[in-house]
Amino acid sequence: MQMKHYQPTASLSPYIKGYMVMHSGEGMTNRLLPGTSLVMAFRYKGLLTYKNGADTPLPASVISGLRRTPGLVQYEGDTEVILVTFREGGAAAFFNMPVHQLYSQSISLQDVFELQQVRDVEEQLALATGDAARIGIIERFLLAQLKHTKTDAAILHTIASIQAAKGIIHIGTLAKSVFMSTDVLEKRFRSIAGCTPKQFATTTRLRHAIDQYTPGSSLTALAYDAGYYDQSHFTRDFRSFTGLAPRAYFSTERRW
User: Fold this and answer.
1) How many Cα atoms occupy the beta-carbon half-sphere of 184 within 13 Å?
2) Which part of the chain is CATH 2.60.120.10?
3) With contact defined as beta carbons under 8 Å apart, do 34 and 69 qualify?
4) 135: left (phi > 0), else alpha (psi -120 to 50), else beta?
5) Which end is more exposed in the chain, N or C (fewer Cβ atoms within 10 Å of the end residue's Cβ)?
6) In this structure, are strands 55-57 and 28-32 parallel, antiparallel, or unpaired?
7) Whole-model pTM above 0.85?
8) What is the pLDDT of residues 209-218, one digit of tens each?
9) Burial readout 16-46 (b: 16 or more C-beta within 10 A, e: otherwise)
10) What is the pLDDT of residues 81-97, one digit of tens each?
């Protein structure tokens, strides 16, 4: 698998972290862990299949919401894809619906945006040559979809607080920090970030624990540092998050 990373143009950088261009080579299956960013994918060559008990071919262009469980995606040989990774809270600027409606789903862009615009982008990507040309096509499409440039400062503050605490924070504390009830915070947070504050914090906490692991390190210490005082509770949450027990997960090859 070959991967190249690119930064967005200045007008899109408030909403988008970056682009990743992937070429699968001989093909592979990748375990996708839950994350805190929505992701848009544009496939212009080959085939992607979501393996969820049944093999489900993915459309040429999709938007994937946040999720709490892992997914397996199979890349056919010589498949080429560009992933658009949104900043936390950034994807909401492009949609006329609360982004939590995308939770645990991967939906064709043809079902979300104007059909002909999406078809035009898919055709242009298939005909284009080079990463710069393709990313330019995608950026023009995204700029045309940009609907809400005014951000929700309170929710962005809440997201930053969860990240700073590495997910170990009480939701009541977050609500007080932005002068909201927990119910109001949850409703606004879901519509902007794509999940509840508690789900976001859990994902942040477990992703940080995975990123902190080094071969041979203590799983007990890892659990403790992640705010777990019960090893069995950590193992249960970890298995739900990755599909594997901690030791089994860390012994497998990780892609991205």
Assistant:
1) 8
2) 2-145
3) yes
4) alpha
5) C
6) unpaired
7) yes
8) 999 999 988 9
9) bbebbbbebeeeeebbbbbebbbbbbbbbee
10) 999 999 999 999 999 99
**CB-based contact 107:70 (threshold 8 Å):** no
Phi and psi (nearest 5°) for 85? Answer: -100, 120
- What pLDDT was estimated at residue 256? 59
CA Rg value for the chain: 19
Sequence-distant (6+) residues with CB within 8 A of 212 are 222, 225
The structure tokens 């005014």 sit at 150
Strand-strand pairing, 61-64 and 28-32: unpaired
Q: Where are the alpha helices (DSSP H) in the chain?
A: 115-127, 131-145, 153-164, 171-177, 182-193, 197-212, 219-225, 231-242, 246-250
Record the tokens describing residue 116, joined without a space: 């002909």
d(CA 126, CA 17): 24
Query: What span, in angstroms and rounded, lies between the C-alpha atoms of 208 and 211?
Result: 5
CATH superfamily of 2-145: Jelly Rolls (2.60.120.10)
CA–CA dist 141, 120 (Å, integer): 9
pLDDT beneath 70, residues of the chain? 254-256
For residue 208, give the nearest of 194, 227, 193, 195 by alpha carbon.
227
**N-term to C-term CA, the chain:** 11
Instruction: Provide the 3-class DSSP secondary structure of residue 35.
Output: coil
Instruction: Label residue 97 exposed, middle or buried (CB < 10 Å: 0-12, 13-18, 19+).
Output: exposed
